[in-house]
Amino acid sequence: MAFTGIRYPLFMRHVILCGLVLGAASVFASVPATEKKPVSDVYHGVTVVDEYRWLEDSGDVKVREWSDAQNAYARGFLAGLPHIEAIRARVTEIMSATTPSYSSLAMTRDGKVLLGLRRQPPAQQPVLVAWDEPERVLGGVPGSAESARVVLDLNVLDPKGLTSLDWFEVSPDGKMLAASLSKAGTESGDVSVFEVATGKRVFEVIPRVNGGTAGGSLAWAPDSKGFYYTRYPRAGERPAQDMDFYMQVYFHALGQPTERDAYEMGKELPRIAEIKLETLVGAGSGSGSGSGSGSGSGVGYGGAVLASVQKGDGGEFEHFVRLPSGAWRQVTRYEDRVVQATFGADDAIYMISRKDAPKGKLLRLALSPECALSQARVVVPEGKDALTSAFEGADNLLVTDSRIYAIYQLGGPSEIRVFDLAGKAMASPRQLEVGAVGGLASVGGDAVVFSDTSYTVPPAYFRFGPGGSGGGLGKPGVEWETGKTALASTSPVDFAGYETVREMAVSKDGTKVPVNIIRKKGLVLDGSHPCLVTGYGGYGLSRSPGFRAAQMVLLEQGVVIAQTNLRGGGEFGEEWHQQGMLTRKQNVFDDFAAACRHMIERKYTSSARLAIEGGSNGGLLMGAALTQNPDLFRVVVTHVGIYDMLRTELSANGAFNIPEYGTVKDADQFRALYAYSPFHNVKDRTAYPAVLFLTGANDPRVEPMQSRKMTARLQAATSSDPARSPILLRTSSEAGHGGGTPLKERIAEATDVDAFLFWALDVDYRAVK
Predict the structure, then answer these.
(1) Is 480 helix (H, G, I), strand (E, B) or coil?
(2) For the chain, what percent of residues have pLDDT higher than 90?
């Protein structure tokens, strides 16, 4: 990439002149050498040479030494960037603000206790808290949020801040909760049981319930004396290479040794099965779930268990029901295209189907001994907007006593719509015009709580139901209202001077791609502004508006931020997803390039001041973007990304990604993968932009070797000056894919990223007073 017109910042010019500035040694330290050891593979008659295969072995001493050298080089470079301490102070000020935020609300069935997660700096990890007067909190009584008592404080449990909460489930009697706890970003969770009243750990620990590959789940029995849970193989049950696969369902009775747990189902499932569990508890049920997915029951089928099974991460599902008799029945198969199911409060299963309805329709199946899908009826037909579906943390569909609450996608923004059990549209809660809703949870009768936020409005929980914030929880004949609860975040910085505009870029094939732009009000479009464009585009996941106070560090320095809604996501339904998966993945990269060019053509910025950033599947996007359009960007920041698309399926979690990306075993899919695989499309003697790779040593979802190999290949190939367009690899030794990362590491990472962006985009950082 020839950065014509880019001038060195004052910092760099001064270093060049004297070479004695503090930090100059780290800036001009030599790029660590990387040995090439060519290995050849043949795929469908095509020979592919891999010179960095040796970097895949994390246990090899030489690989660790290489990784340490690269980490030292990267951190040395970053530490020498201009204004780094001033930037660190501003990032710390914002991210350490003691404003609390809340998530994962769950009401006990008797309505006497409300539980939820509270994240509040300087605590490194969130705290699980309980409110014993939920009506005051839900009614928005000032100061009521502060009345919470601590049930589980991970910061006390582990003062180093390395233990994280994967998820929790409250028992039907409200007296206990089961929590999956993992360490250092591994997501390898064992389940512990705690008393809600005292926070005391009770009973035995259940090992290997959650993992970074297939996740994990748990559903309490109606009598609260035990629970159904997902179980990974134990030592000796499977070969080493299969220990993160073959998930099954077991039942554990409290007080009994785990060796006596009873097998329930799963032996017939695929190697890459992922399972989520839900129990039909009993009449008058509330949520009882840390994920906010409520369930209730009439009579007759209380105790039924629903197992939703996904084959890998590609959106293919089967569903099974365990009847109260103990017999399991298969309800749906992959070809039925039912992508989500949950129990209703009327002895029925409500299911989101995409069969002949790519934007989704809602079905109702009354429970019966047969549980035949052919007996299901359409309750809410397909509409013009996409009915969202979810697997992990499903808080998008909730069926109460007489209402159905469903979240719809509007191309990025989302909204809640309400129906009666016959599918008739009912009054919906008041919501932000361009926002993102979620966190649906039952709080008694037909009343619910939900969260709402936007790019410039902090998240808050609202109660919707009879009587609104004035009381009347669940009382019939009372007017339905939307009331703000006491569980609302405030921002440590003022976004009043900023606005969000939504524009449409035009992709290579003519598809219109939404671009959500956060900018200063009154911004003059003269092509001079530094700009950061982000994207994801995969797995049917929608990128909705989200409030991030730390973005102010960039915005207040004049950076324009743009978030894209690319194909591969779920913003416009399943067709939008399918247009960006498997052999059609190139559409995602074309969409993103079009969005970046849109920002230039609309005169927000220029290539010389354009940055891009993404993570995970979005890291793959970054790799494809920089190899396909190296002269379009000045700087790339890519987190925990996938870059070698021919080898990723050999890793534990890579196998789960085959339904989304494809496999080299299929000739057509191999050709598509090889055509865009970032690692295989790096070209020698090409001027690549500045790149910062970030990875976690304990990442269970994307192996760090992906970042190691891509770093080595780019460093060997680029013709750019490493003092001006370096290729850096920053590795966090006590982090994984991102979940559970302690606050101090998140601050350190944000500081390095922001400083790197400011330096590369030639932003003269000015401290904010």
Answers:
(1) strand
(2) 88
Tell me the pLDDT tens digit for each residue of 704-758: 999 999 999 999 999 999 999 999 999 998 888 888 898 999 999 999 999 999 9
CB 621 within 8 A of CB 707: no
CA quadruple 45, 40, 676, 653: dihedral sign: positive
Polymer length of the chain: 769
pTM of the model: 0.91
| Cβ atoms of 597 and 620 closer than 8 Å | no
Residue 423, Cβ density class (10 Å: 0-12 exposed, 13-18 middle, ≥19 buried) = middle
pLDDT at residue 100 tops 70? yes
Token pair of 228, please?
């159904």
**Residues near 138 by Cβ (< 8 Å), separated by ≥ 6?**
114, 443, 449, 463, 469, 473, 483, 485, 486
The rounded distance, in Å, linking the Cα atoms of 417 and 436 is: 13
Q: What is the dihedral of CA 191, 197, 200, 201, to 10 degrees?
A: -20
Neighbours of 712 (CB within 10 A): 25
Task: Produce one character per residue of 445-457: b if its CB has 16 or more CB atoms within 10 Å, e if not.
Answer: bbbbbbbbbbbbb
Q: How many CB atoms lie within 10 A of CB 615?
A: 20
Rg (CA), the chain: 26
Burial of 284 from C-beta contacts in 10 A (0-12 / 13-18 / 19+): middle
Distance CA 250, CA 667 (A): 39
- pLDDT for residue 281 is more than 50: yes
pLDDT the model gives residue 3: 26
> What pairs with residue 409 in β-bridges?
386, 414
- DSSP one-letter string for 385-422: SEEP--STT--SEEE-SSEEEEEEESSS-EEEEEEETT
Q: Is the pLDDT of residue 219 over 80?
A: yes
